[in-house]
Amino acid sequence: MLDLKRQYEPLQKELLGALGHVLQTQQFILGEQVNRFELSAASHLGVAHALGCSSGTDALWLALAAAGLGQGAAVVTTPFSFFASVSSILRAGGTAVLADIDPATFNLSPKAVEEVLDGSQGKQVRAILPVHLFGQCADWTEFARLGRQRGLKLIEDAAQAWGSEWGGTKAGGLGDIAAFSFYPTKNMSAAGDAGMVTTNSEELTERVRMLRQHGMRRRYYHDELGWNTRMDGFQGAILEVKMRYIDGWNHARRTVARRYHALFHESGLAEANLYPSHGIVLPHEVAGSHHVWHQYVIRTRKRDALRDFLAMRQIGSEIYYPLPLHMQEALKRLGYIEGSFPEAERAAHEVLALPIFPELREDEQKTVVSAIADFLS
Description:
The chain folds into two domains: 4-99 and 106-245, 3-Layer(aba) Sandwich (Aspartate Aminotransferase, domain 2); 247-376, Aspartate Aminotransferase, domain 1 (Alpha-Beta Complex), CATH 3.90.1150. Helix content is 40%, strand content 15%. It has helices spanning 4-8, 12-25, 31-45, 56-66, 84-91, 110-117, 140-150, 202-211, 233-243, 246-267, 303-312, 342-350, 362-376, and strands spanning 49-53, 74-77, 95-98, 125-128, 153-157, 165-166, 169-170, 177-181, 195-199, 216-218, 221-222, 270-271, 280-281, 289-290, 296-299, 351-354.
């Protein structure tokens, strides 16, 4: 699925130099390297403020807590995402309300959200938290409209979407506040856990800074119950180096995605339908968006059997996500049952992520497509 050695080997000298500087300065928590990365990240994303933290999950909690979405606040999000999208709402003290996904993009459906807002739970909703899934922004034109019309805050879960855009604006600058993950598998990745919060609001920035350091504005004076969610200097150093290369890596991912598209169409495996029949349905880039292809996710009716077949051929694949959030044991208290979100549930049975990373070679992609052709034949 991912060969990080191909990314790290060319950067070894730069990375070791940056890590050595942290050792020399002993700025192990936040400090110079993190500050430089924050400034570089804000400039790259076109936002006023970028604040490093210890993980993408903590970034989500910081964003929600800073925005005041705690006790009594309901936040609408998707059932088809990583666990943290919902658990962070609950951790902040809010109520998670779910709405179904768009079957074409797997992103949260604005239409489904609007139906929730018009329903019995709508009066308690204070914010919408769309996830920019697999590297493509959610339909921000519609979510911005809903935010304006209903007076709702918009929180971006941009964990998988560094560098993606909607209408020329990068993820991280679309909503009131956004959260990124730098988990090692992400397009923009640390050598461990790290995350970031971005916003154009001075007020939210000040609150995030305070909350990430135990609720302190002055050392040892605690104004609120914050948490220890600071980014360490080593991760800041790694990420500052990688900032110089992320645009090139994302461009390479787009090239890899185009090659997959071409190879699948040439092989006759691609179906033009919304749902798969005998072949596979390919992912696509929505008009007006800029996809960074964190994952290349196909749909197929024989997903589990195909994955087993690929494993026998020593080809990696992954299922994002095999069980929607409303069906997770830990989230039964949300009150949903099987059948509540049919599009998310169907996607969970059909999606399969294929190998994709900037250094993936064309001959390797041909091997993947050939194996899928063998299976389907």
